[in-house]
Write a structure and sequence with these properties.
The structure holds 3 protein chains of 3 kinds. Chain A is an alpha/beta fold. Chain A contains 13 helices and 11 strands. In chain A, the strands form 2 sheets. Chain A has a 6-stranded mixed β-sheet with strand order 7-6-8-5-9-11, covered by helices on one side. The chains are: A alpha/beta, B mainly alpha, C mainly alpha. The complex binds sodium ion (NA) (2 copies).
């Protein structure tokens, strides 16, 4: 990047193709990617044009990582934990049960060494990864029956994919795969006893509140962070100013999505509570939470033993959590507690 | 532009008679190469994998298998014959029975390929045996097999719920009324048609002997109850929460095998033959899906989606004008592309306008779903037509099927218009 | 020579058909078993659930070449049905060379890289208790497409033989005749 660029060069338009995991016009998640692309184009005065292909076009929602890695797409908007079957250490850059909240996790990413660790994991695959928008605390799911004790978890058939499902399985629950299209019928007919989706922001339109009486608060995804990723070669091709514009657009879009999600959740929760007063919002009892926490800890210890990189990331998160949680406790938590008195 | 040329070339190529699946794939390849070069096809494995992983599609082979076992053991034949006889001297009894069985199957699957093929296997041979007009038989089967699309559970409704942000349950509920209307109209049509053209749908001769009538009814019931019970068990397993709709089709398959044991028709050879036939028909269906995904990839990646977008975003005039034009657009596009593409690519383009015009989303969704159901039947690319052709006996030609579906397409268009004009009747607007 | 090649290719496709048929029955049992285990015993194995679509996918993918050999792929026969065997054969030769072979070979080629990536990464199911060795199911794509190309070659050879020996009546599009 020369200090004085020729006008012709300055006018050059860079086009990036981005694949997102979500369907066309998917609310909140899809808004984040569109928002990012629009900002980048505006800030660059049209020199950086990002076209977005949704799942409906590329048909490979869980192939985004491969396609970006291979350069079929320059960018992707997805979530890191989807790649854990390919690269186990990617699991830790989305959210962890009993882990950090969104502000805590953003602090870890940008000031606590998270970005460096993410780079360490992704650079091997020629991909740059950035936080891509947070859903905020996700709900623990819709239940057909009340959970009063550990006994109630035994044999509980729940659609809950991934690591959280593994934690629940340790307590005797039966995590179950049900295709998204059949979730509603399966929960309604009690083919499964429970399911987790996202939170009010996206649950409302699935209609689960009409068929399941209990809505449990969350423990397993306290701060689900999406991900923007860029193929390294595509990134290197961009002049420095456009790289910076892209970086800023990504960071702003991530923040925008977090507050949008917060807003949507608040709004939709109000709708659920007003229109469906029979929905009972519950938290798991103490002994259940204690057992979940223990099972989670045991699993993390196992993972850390298997993979030195996992160990490094988990230690970084655990250490950072100690520091940052202390502040959360005496700031937000103490504030909420004291004004509630 | 390339997309449009591609359509017409595909149309001509299909007419030559090379297998549909590879015609789609080959045409996609030629145009993809011209427009973008071979690298576009690096996307194909991803698209194929998404078909492979789509467990909802497992209902296709499972229902086909159930249909084949019922056919091989002649249980299906007896079911339809007996139902036809119960209609006594009424002409068209077999066709009406086909519609009713099709409606039951429709209520247990949301996958059209599954029910059209199963109905083709079960009832086409029987109707032909009783000298039904080929076109009437084929039209009835395609139309009643396609009912699975609108009668819940239905994949189209699930996709539309997703795309339009409507709870799936609301859509399922809203679709029941229009579904029943459609069934009713089919039955009335068959009655009227066979009244005026008795030779097209002869009544099954009932036993003349009055003394034996009682015995006759008992025999009929004996033939009807087991296979009907099987279908009801499949449905029941969904409602009782035993199985998901997809899984229920496996219960149907196992149940059919059990029935064959009970009726002394079971043999390992029969089981293997049924499996082999299932594979052949399933592969026929999925090869079309594989070819079609290549086709739609070439279409969208060469800018076809932008052409469609441009046309649709310029639709003029008020809520009713918008609805009519978008219905016509979907109907025309339905001649060329399949419902998944339409739901995912076209509907999102229409949705913002519908919202801006304050059109009730559920009404809009049901209109689209009915319309898409029609697209399964419209020649030349209606998938139901291919599927039925794939299982039809040698004497049945493509033209018989094309001719047969036309009245049913008109009836569906009529129902779409009635939903458009009288949404209150269907409870689709407040 | 051609006849020999035709026989070998048909045999190959038939074997795939046999494998597919058995895979279908396994899938039927697999799904049934999972439903019963879940409903009656609250027992769910993610691996067993994933096995359902592994069997399903392999079944229909390997079924495609078999069905080509068995003449089960649907055609629009408005014109085709009225043509002589010789003209039908010409359509099949042209279609095979221009449409089927390029398509299946190119997709098969990209399928190799697709499966190899999964192998290289040691990709497994993302779900706990899911199936390992994802490359195997991914490798079904190139395998099935190359097998379809081979079956397509068989179709071309059959058509050539039908032209050379018009007295042979090897029907093209009559699925009943292949049973
Ligand atoms: Na369904
Ligand atoms: Na249905």
């Amino acid at each position: 990047a020369a200090a004085v660029a020729l006008p012709a060069q300055a006018e050059k338009t860079y086009r990036l193709k981005m694949a997102e995991t979500w369907p066309t016009n998917f609310p909140v998640f899809g808004d984040a990617s569109r928002n990012m692309a629009a900002m980048a184009e505006k800030m660059s005065n049209g020199r950086l044009k990002i076209t977005i292909d949704s799942k409906n076009k590329h048909k490979a929602p869980l192939g985004v990582f491969d396609m970006v890695r291979a350069g079929q797409y320059d960018m992707g908007h997805s979530a890191s934990y989807y790649w854990k079957g390919k690269v186990p250490a990617t699991l830790y850059f989305t959210t962890m049960p009993f882990g950090m909240t969104a502000p805590e996790q953003y602090s870890w990413f940008y000031h606590g060494g998270g970005m460096e660790l993410m780079e360490k994991v992704y650079s091997k695959y020629n991909v740059l990864s950035f936080p891509g928008g947070n859903t905020g605390n996700q709900m623990g799911g819709w239940f057909q029956k009340e959970i009063n004790s550990l006994e109630d978890l035994k044999g509980l058939k729940m659609r809950i994919p991934g690591f959280a499902g593994e934690v629940l399985a340790k307590l005797g629950a039966s995590p179950t795969n049900i295709p998204a299209g059949e979730l509603y019928t399966a929960l309604e007919r009690r083919t499964i006893d429970a399911l987790e989706w996202v939170g009010p922001s996206l649950d409302l339109r699935m209609g689960f509140h009409k068929i399941a009486p209990y809505y449990y608060t969350g423990w397993h995804e306290p701060a689900t962070e999406l991900q923007f990723m860029i193929n390294k070669r595509s990134w290197d091709r961009l002049p420095e100013d456009l790289q910076e514009i892209l970086r800023v657009s990504i960071r702003t879009a991530a923040y925008d999505m977090y507050i949008q999600s917060y807003h949507e959740s608040a709004k939709n929760l109000e709708i659920i509570e007003n229109e469906f007063p029979n929905v009972k919002i519950r938290s798991f009892p103490e002994d259940v939470m204690a057992a979940l926490r223990q099972a989670n800890q045991d699993l993390l210890t196992e993972k850390a033993k298997e993979d030195p990189l996992a160990k490094e990331i988990l230690e970084s998160q655990a250490n950072y959590l100690k520091t940052v949680r202390r502040w959360t406790d005496i700031s937000d938590k103490a504030y909420l507690n004291s004004i509630a008195q | 532009m390339i997309g449009i040329v591609m359509f017409f070339v595909a149309l001509l190529a299909l007419l030559a008679g090379f297998p549909v699946a590879f015609t789609f794939g080959g045409i996609a390849l030629i145009f993809g190469l011209i427009a973008e070069g071979p690298s576009m096809f690096a996307f194909m494995p991803f698209r194929i994998q998404s078909i492979m992983e789509n467990v909802v599609l497992m209902a296709v082979p499972l229902f086909i298998f159930m249909g084949i076992v019922l056919q091989k053991t002649r249980l299906a034949e007896q079911l339809l014959e007996s139902m036809g006889k119960l209609f006594g001297g009424v002409r068209g009894g077999l066709a009406i029975s086909t519609v009713l069985v099709g409606a039951l199957l429709a209520a247990s699957t949301g996958v059209v390929g599954a029910s059209v093929v199963a109905m083709g296997l079960i009832s086409l041979p029987v109707m032909l045996k009783y000298n039904y007009d080929k076109s009437l038989a084929c039209g009835t089967i395609c139309a009643s097999g396609t009912l699975g699309q609108i009668i819940p559970p239905s994949i189209v409704l699930i996709i539309l719920g997703d795309v339009l942000g409507i709870p799936v349950g609301d859509l399922f509920q809203a679709a029941v009324g229009p579904g029943f209307v459609l069934i009713g109209i089919y039955v009335v049509y068959i009655l009227v048609y066979s009244f005026f053209k008795p030779e097209a749908a002869p009544a099954i001769p009932a036993d003349e002997d009055i003394e034996h009538r009682r015995e006759h009814y008992i025999r009929a019931l004996k033939a009807i109850v087991p296979p009907l019970a099987l279908i009801l068990v499949v449905l029941g397993s969904i409602f009782a929460g035993i199985a998901t709709p997809t899984e229920s089709s496996a219960l149907g398959g196992v149940g059919a095998v059990l029935l064959s044991v009970v009726y002394g028709q079971f043999s390992w050879k029969m089981l293997y033959d049924a499996a082999e036939e299932t594979v052949k028909i399933t592969a026929m269906v999925f090869a079309i899906l594989l070819g079609a995904t290549a086709f739609s990839m070439a279409f969208t990646y060469t800018g076809g989606d932008y052409i469609v977008e441009e046309v649709l975003s310029n639709l003029p005039g008020g809520a009713m004008g918008f609805l009519i034009l978008s219905m016509v657009a979907i109907l025309i596009l339905g001649f060329f592309i399949d419902f998944v593409e339409i739901s995912f690519i076209i509907v999102p383009m229409l949705a913002p306008a519908a919202i801006a015009l304050d059109i009730a989303p559920v009404w809009f969704a049901i209109l689209i779903a009915m319309n898409l159901q029609t697209s399964f039947l419209t020649p030349p690319f209606g998938f139901s037509l291919f599927y039925l052709k794939g299982v039809a006996p040698a004497g049945v030609q493509t033209m018989d099927i094309y001719r047969g579906v036309i009245p049913f397409i008109l009836m569906q268009v009529g129902v779409v218009i009635s939903i458009l004009l009288f949404p209150e009747f269907y409870g689709l607007v407040d | 020579m051609l006849m020999q090649a035709e026989r070998v290719i048909n045999r190959f496709s038939d074997i795939l058909g046999k494998i597919s048929s058995i895979l279908f029955l396994l899938m039927l049992v697999n799904v049934f078993f999972n439903v019963v285990a879940r409903y009656a015993f609250n027992a769910v194995w993610i691996g067993s659930q994933e096995m359902e679509w592994h069997l399903f996918a392999t079944m229909f993918m390997l079924g495609v070449p078999y069905t080509l050999r068995a003449g089960g792929h649907v055609r629009v026969d408005l014109i085709y049905e009225r043509l002589s065997v010789g003209k039908q054969s010409i359509i099949d030769i042209l279609g095979g060379l221009v449409l089927l072979l390029p398509f299946t070979l190119l997709v098969g080629y990209y399928g190799i890289g697709f499966a190899y990536e999964a192998f290289e990464l040691g990709e497994t199911s993302g779900d706990p208790g899911g199936l390992p060795y994802r490359w195997i199911i991914k490798a079904v794509i190139p395998f099935a497409f190359f097998a379809t190309a081979i079956a397509g070659l068989g179709l071309i050879i059959t058509s050539i033989l039908n032209i050379k020996h018009p007295e042979r009546t090897e029907p093209h599009n009559n699925h009943e005749s292949s049973l």
